[in-house]
Amino acid sequence: MASLVREGAFLADVGTDHAQLPAALMECGKIRGAVASDVNEGPVAHARETVRACGFEGQIDVLLTDGLAGLESYAPTDIVIAGMGGELIRDILAASPIPKKSGVRLILQPMTMQRELREYLSTGHFHISRELLSLDSNLNGRLYSILCAEYRADDAESPYSELELVVGRRLIEERPAHFEAYIARHLEILDVRIGGMDKAGLDTSGLKALRWDIAALL
Ligand SMILES: C[S@@+](CC[C@H](N)C(=O)[O-])C[C@H]1O[C@@H](n2cnc3c(N)ncnc32)[C@H](O)[C@@H]1O
Question: Among 84, 85, 118, 180, fewest CB within 10 Å belongs to which?
């Protein structure tokens, strides 16, 4: 995520928890300032402690707020929303005018429901310009997807197919590091779902067709 934040950005880190990302980006001089926000008091206290310990009280504001509410006056150029479900990220984006402001970059890291988040972005004139896969070797090789997007009212990209919504158009095009493991994980999850639905006598033809398309990417 840090690599997708632009040089000289004013960062909004929404759902910051510990404020480690804005603190690290201030430390290396990549951003000019940040607002670190969270809807819960414990994380806000944690974030304030990080900011104080790093000596960034003048550069990083910490706010207790829901989503992007009250962040308009900061005019953030880059917004990170990480470590939440894709539906919650979608709802936070949809509830605020800030993500549609010209030039604002969104850097999103959904823990679940990536398909729903891609659908919201791609049908809502948000152009997904890049997607990255990040491997956490400390967490049994858990893979994280990171989406980078910005609003373009005149975006002329063709509609996403179901395969592209589930896997990610940019990931299919670019096949970055860890792509094979990412696809294998999708197949495992689908196999469990299909097995359960088959047992229950439900129609799995759509899911089997999707599985076939995903397997063909390997
Ligand atoms: C798992 S932590 C992720 C922390 C950090 N962003 C990261 O990726 O390491 C999720 C954080 O999102 C916060 N959160 C959940 N819903 C939120 C909302 N609607 N607005 C702001 N923060 C929210 C939680 O309080 C929690 O601190």
Answer: 180
Round to whole Å and give the CA distance between 44 and 61.
10
* 130-159 pLDDT tens trace: 999 999 887 677 899 999 999 998 888 999
Coil/strand/helix, residue 15: coil
The SS3 call for residue 169 is helix
Token look-up 């992007």 returns 68
Residues with CB under 6 A from ligand 1: 14-17, 37-40, 43, 66-67, 82-84, 88, 92
The residues near 110 (Cβ < 8 Å, ≥ 6 apart) are 84, 85, 86, 89, 117, 145, 147
- Greatest Cα pair distance in the chain: 61
d(CA 184, ligand 1 centre) in Å: 28
* Cα–Cα distance, 123 to 127 (Å, whole number): 9
Give the pLDDT score at 140: 72
Reported as a single tens digit per residue, the pLDDT across 89-128 is 999 999 999 999 999 999 999 999 999 999 999 999 999 9
Which residue's C-alpha comes closest to atom 9 of ligand 1? 83
* Residue 70 Rama label (left phi>0; alpha psi -120 to 50; beta): left
Residue 139's pLDDT is 64
Token output for 187: 């197949």
Which overall architecture, per CATH, does domain 2-160 show? 3-Layer(aba) Sandwich (3.40)
